[in-house]
TrEMBL record:
This is DUF5916 domain-containing protein. Keywords: Signal. The keyword Signal applies. The lineage of its organism: Bacteria, Pseudomonadati, Bacteroidota, Flavobacteriia, Flavobacteriales. InterPro entries: DUF5916. It comes from the Bacteria. Residues 1-18 form the signal peptide. Pfam families: DUF5916. Residues 235-810 form the DUF5916 domain.
Length: 813
């Protein structure tokens, strides 16, 4: 029944575009491109004879910091676009009356430095939502991103080419964007939308070809129209990324070496849909996770560092049901291995990660605006092994079964700004283990004038335990003013007590019934000393769904401002009424009540265009009427030594005193204690770029944290959320104090030796220590850390890009 209702709603919203018109279309510029019989040479010097007859797109207008001001006569921008049977070609002329001030900082691909740049946004379906950005800096760095509204996903990568040059009149860019890098409808004549942009870093100004009204809708709604592309055929979009890798690992006197090979594959199923497949994946060179001491009730989460799970996943992340770190994570039974030992047994093997066997995703969008996505991943069974020291027998226990992960998405877009979606995620585990299934219906709809945005989500979870099935439900409904300087909105969030998406998604809490509101005021062109600023006032009222009781109410305000000299600053303040925390006790339907709370934060960020720049943040939090306080401070200077050499240092300090925190869960009681906690983090990021294709980078992080409980502060939780003193004996086995220190260092050399191909040589050094010696201060802890065995790892990985069309032409030749 639910599925029928959702499908009916999908049809209703899909047909709504027949009765709505977009008034912005008439205001859009248009450009008619030219077919070339001969392709230009991509060398960054667009003065060949063939370019002279191509029409010019000019009359750029300001988008930042102003609002539609014409470009300076000293900094004109002209763009020409042409095409052949194989590719789109772009020539851009960025004139500058003082070329010495053109910023040309070097960086590797997809890292946009302090530099002038030129960009092209192409939307091959002219749907106002999904487009691909191609960006080229004045130093020659390439970047590409998948865009949806204001979001830019630079994890997306396609193979294309671009070159730049500079002379006494300015700088110039040439691009070749092959059709294999685009998806477009199978039509005799294409109608695309396009936007050109130019950033002049020295002036702190950004210009675009087609005017963008920042006060209404999204920037992707304001592309111009591209005509003239006729009778082109999508090439066979088949490319291979074979890799080989080897590593040597030294830890605690033991040396291990390994070698692996595998391949990623991309195949264009038709003009709209693409298959991405990874076979025998290798994630050995992914960035380290920023692990911290976690004493809270929720798992620590990390960002995704594996390229396959970040590239082209915009369809699969709808509804926030996909937390990709679930795939290949620590086995669910990893932490139970020690306590499941039998008498006379010792653990001889307990894998810390689940091996991914393969993964694939199919995604695309039809000419009618229907996006379809399918994702599948399979992980290997993981087993712990026990050795019976008396009999010599070896016993195995499954810690993670063979598991199949699936996602299916339908996303219908209409009116160039609105969409409705259906999504289903499914996790099936072999044997008598937990399985999960989640379905959701989503809508994101603008009215005709884009002045209001209506959003909603309805999600249903089904968790199949070996002994029972649980069905849960969650929803979100919101309306927001999306036009003008003054904006406001209200939202309602709901989840029942059995809502659970944690097989493939991530939700920490359920059983809530919350109301949120926000109002803000912003400017879209310079005023006084400001280029822009935003003032907001917000609040929420949080309730428990069952039983229906108030959890807390929050009120807050925030400010963001940036001056004409690109000095940014801001802050926030928040007040909360007494808070009933149902998760810190770790027992169902039990809460501890914390008193009312006030917190504030201020921050500054200086102009990154200077050789020396600074970011800093200071925060304070107080639980009123109690000694519970929290302080945090962050200090991060950055030094641009030259256009090739950049260093960023960061120091973060956090201290929290007298927090009533969970200690132990006993059969009849929940034990709390008064905890002091202190943390110090030092990190250093450095890069030296020999060119835009090769460079050395350093990434270092040391995080220390210590938590100690006062010996006479132990209490037990009573029914009303209050605490009363209790005698609790601390032993070596139940000592709640914690002392944590971790050190990670990555030093890598990266060389992109051909389009889509690269070599990475990586050295890693890591040390880790966790105990309960909370009496150690930071420098004593460092000495203790260096007495631990260090892991040294050296790895080499080579990926080579092979295109089917190139191989075919070579064979024919």
């Amino acid at each position: 029944m639910l599925l029928r209702v959702l499908l009916l709603l999908l049809v209703i919203f899909t047909q709504a575009h027949l009765f709505s018109q977009n008034s912005e279309v008439a205001q859009k510029k248009s450009y008619t491109t030219t077919r070339l019989s001969q392709a230009p040479v991509i060398d960054g010097i667009p003065f060949e004879e063939l370019w002279k007859e191509i029409p010019v797109a000019t009359d750029f207008v300001m988008v930042e910091p102003g609002d539609g001001d014409p470009s300076r006569s000293t900094h004109r921008t002209e763009v020409k676009l042409a095409y052949t049977d194989e590719a789109i070609y772009v020539a851009a002329f960025m004139y500058d009356n003082d070329p010495q001030k053109i910023r040309r900082e070097f960086a590797q691909r997809d890292n946009i430095p302090i530099a002038d740049y030129f960009l092209v946004d192409i939307n091959t379906y002219n749907d106002g939502e999904n487009q691909t950005r191609f960006l080229l800096t004045a130093a020659g760095t390439l970047a590409d991103a998948k865009m949806k509204g204001e979001d830019e996903d630079y994890g997306y990568n396609v193979v294309w080419n671009g070159k730049v040059s500079i002379d006494e009149n300015g700088w110039y860019a040439e691009m070749r964007i092959p059709y294999s890098a685009l998806r477009f409808p199978d039509k005799a004549e294409q109608l695309w939308s396009i936007q050109f942009g130019r950033n002049i870093n020295f002036l702190n100004e950004t210009y675009v070809w087609n005017y963008i009204n920042k006060s209404v809708g999204k920037t992707t709604h304001y592309n111009g129209l591209l005509y003239g592309i006729r009778n082109i055929d999508a090439p066979v979009r088949l490319s291979f990324y074979p890799y080989v890798s080897g590593e040597v690992d030294h830890y605690d006197g033991n040396n291990e070496s390994s070698f692996s090979a595998g391949m990623d594959l991309k195949y264009g199923i038709n003009d709209a849909f693409t298959l991405d497949l990874t076979l025998i994946p290798d994630f050995g060179q992914t960035a380290y996770d920023e692990v911290e001491l976690n004493l809270g009730p929720f798992e620590q989460t990390f960002g995704e560092n594996r390229a396959f799970f970040t590239e082209g996943t915009e369809l699969f992340t709808k509804g926030d049901l996909f937390y990709s770190r679930r795939i290949g994570d620590t086995p669910t039974g990893f932490h139970d291995v020690q306590k499941n030992k039998l008498e006379d047994e010792e653990v001889i093997e307990n894998p810390e990660e689940t091996d991914l066997l393969n993964a694939l995703k199919i995604s695309g969008r039809t000419d009618g605006g229907l996006g379809i996505g399918f994702f599948n991943a399979i992980t290997k069974t993981q087993r712990a092994r026990y050795l019976n020291t008396r009999t010599g027998e070896v016993r195995e226990q499954v810690t993670e079964p063979f598991t199949n992960y699936n996602i299916f998405v339908l996303d219908q877009q209409f009116d160039q700004k609105s969409s409705v979606s259906l999504i289903n995620t499914n996790v099936t585990r072999e044997g008598h283990f937990r399985d999960g299934n989640v379905s959701a219906f989503l809508f994101d709809v603008y009215n005709r004038t884009s002045s209001f945005n209506f959003t909603g989500e309805a999600k249903m979870s089904n968790v199949n335990h070996p002994t029972q099935n649980l069905t849960g439900f969650a929803s979100t409904v919101g309306i927001a003013r999306s036009k003008g300087k003054f904006r406001y909105g209200v939202t309602h969030d709901f989840a029942n007590e059995t809502y659970d998406i944690n097989d493939l998604g991530l939700n920490f809490i359920n059983n809530y019934n919350n109301f949120l509101w926000e109002t803000s005021y912003r400017i879209f062109e310079p005023r006084g000393i400001f280029n822009r600023y935003n003032i907001s006032i917000y609040g929420d009222h949080q309730r428990r769904y069952k039983p229906d009781i108030e959890v807390t109410t929050n009120f807050g305000t925030s400010f963001f401002g940036m001056t004409r000299e690109r000095f940014a600053f801001g802050g926030s303040a928040n007040y909360s009424t007494p808070f009933k925390d149902f998760f810190e006790p770790r027992r169902a339907d039990t809460f501890i009540q914390y008193p009312e709370n006030a917190q504030g934060e201020i921050w500054i960020s200086s102009d990154y265009r200077n050789r020396l720049a600074l970011d800093s943040r200071l925060g304070y939090e107080s639980y009123l009427g109690t000694p519970h306080k929290k302080y945090n401070f962050r200090f991060s200077p950055r030094v641009r030594v030259s256009n090739k050499f950049l260093i960023v240092y960061s120091f973060r300090y956090t201290k929290e005193n007298n927090r009533e925190s969970f200690v132990s869960l006993l059969p009849q009681e929940v034990i709390f204690g008064n905890r002091d906690m202190e943390s110090v983090e030092n990190s250093l990021q450095g890069s030296y770029n020999f060119s835009t294709r090769s460079g050395v980078s350093l990434s270092f992080r040391n995080f220390w944290s210590s938590a100690g409980f006062a010996e006479t502060s132990f209490t037990r939780l009573v029914d009303n959320g209050k605490l009363e003193p209790v005698d609790y004996v601390v032993t070596e086995e139940n000592d709640p104090d914690a002392h944590f220190n971790i050190w990670n260092l990555d030093l890598s050399y990266q060389w992109r030796f051909a389009p889509g191909s690269e070599m990475i040589l990586l050295y890693r050094n890591s040390i880790f220590n966790l105990d309960n010696r909370n009496e150690l201060v930071y420098f004593e802890s460092l000495e203790d850390l260096f007495s631990q065995p260090a892991r040294h790892n050296l790895s080499l990985r080579v990926v080579y890009y092979l295109d089917y069309n190139t191989i075919k032409n070579v064979i024919k030749g």
